[in-house]
Design brief:
Helices cover 14% and strands 36% of the residues. It has a 6-stranded antiparallel β-sheet with strand order 1-2-6-7-8-5, covered by helices on one side. The protein is globular and about 45 Å long. It contains 1 helix and 8 strands; from the N terminus they run ββββαββββ.
Length: 159
Amino acid sequence: MAEYVENAIQDVYPDDFSWCYGCGRLNKEGHQFRTGWDGAQTVTVYTPRPEHTAVPGFVYGGLTASLIDCHGTGSAALALHRKNGHEPGDGAEAPRFVTASLEVKFMKPTPQDVPLKAVGTVEEIHPKKFKVHTEVYAGDVLCSSGEVVAALMPESFGK
């Protein structure tokens, strides 16, 4: 499994919107999740750190929820960016999405010292909304799944 996503959508977010604790490339204290294409699906790979412990040997659920959340909004941005004729790294600024809803289902305890791989399937449900179904694996074990409805961030946001 790849441990680093090349050409992540987060690399082309505007600087003003790159501070998210989960996926902001400018937030040095955050997770800095990176989301990219893997064929027709999206992928984020992240190795939990020791401070992400719930009980010894296992990751706390909030990290998994954060991974699904940021993977969902990043996947929506990838999908719209591609629909607009662009790919990360082609010089075009990516659209930004915010979470309209988040659903997480925990299936198995998530081990601490294993890279996690979030795999997403994107479905457009409205010109400004995408639904992303995500499964999070530790190795070959499906630990959690989730669904994010991501809404395109209004241009007036933050002004």
